[in-house]
């Protein structure tokens, strides 16, 4: 859920809660004021009755009252506290009962006591309250609509610089020369955020460039002495004065030097993959490339007398030709290296996945098989082949997994 949605939700809930609470308080306040006003009118009517009795020494006639319903009851009570209460008002014109309000009191006439009740209708007051409640509800609805629209459009405009900056961050690539552009905003916090991100991006690019230069320089400078060592070993191994025991030592040095050279190239490749420095993306016919790789590795396959079983369907992908070539090289090499003599290699390509299976006696560590420098005890590889495979898959947003079933190693890539 976006920040604006969170804000709208919280704002509307808070506003609705306050409005409902305010409407309830407002309703009871209007009801209380209206009731007090009616009680005041009843008190005035009662005062008029008492004044009339004191002036004329008789009870007023019913015709002396407008729409008030006044009744007198002779009573033996000599004391009675004036009371106000809700009652029923009988409307003589419309011949129906309405909500009413009554005052009851005691008056004295010629040494006799009378209980007087005066009732007036509350319908007009209740109707007024209903109108006020309807208007209040309408205003609440309009206010909520205005609040929602204001939050929606004003907040979207207010947060526009943030989303522009966010899109720039998403498209930011440390290997490219483009920088994050400065965004002009009236909000100080957005300007501070923009400046902080620009500083951070500049530092990241500087650090990346230093690391890139160091890696390339170190790799390049390492190749020269390795080439010299290899050249000297080639010259030395042709020396006829060497003893047989020296040949073995020179061969060991030669193998270690070649391994160091491959290790250097593999580490450099991993750095390039992890930092997206290889962008030679093109359309690749994976089926055709697998067939070509099978022919290239045919000599190694024949040397171990392996059986190759393929089930290939036409599949085209967009990726770096160099990286896909490295991926297939490592998968073929890994399958051949870890297959026993007279073993079997199965390759299955469909529209959604690629599977390499090869026979084996013991399962690999599934949790660590893709970690750097993980290899078998008797392996002559660098221990980086499957790491390179995983990095290539990750850079292309593919999933790769390893399993071991029925004495078969299986590497599955899901496109």
Automatic annotation (TrEMBL):
Q: What is a single cellular component term in the Gene Ontology annotation? A: plasma membrane
Q: Which UniProt keywords apply?
A: Kinase, Membrane, Phosphoprotein, Transferase, Transmembrane, Transmembrane helix
The scientific name of the source species is Mucilaginibacter gracilis
**Which reaction is recorded as catalysed by this protein?**
ATP + protein L-histidine = ADP + protein N-phospho-L-histidine
Q: Which domain of life is it from?
A: Bacteria
EC number(s) per entry: 2.7.13.3
Which residues span the membrane?
12-33, 127-150
On whether S-adenosyl-L-methionine is a keyword of this UniProt record, the answer is no
User: Would you tell me the protein name for this molecule?
Assistant: histidine kinase
Q: Which InterPro entries match?
A: HATPase_C_sf, HATPase_dom, His_kinase_dom, HisK_dim/P_dom, HisK_dim/P_sf, TCS_sensor_his_kinase
Which residue range or ranges hold the Histidine kinase domain? 217-415
Is Nucleotide-binding there in the keyword field? no
GO terms for MF: phosphorelay sensor kinase activity
Among the Pfam families in the record, one is HATPase_c
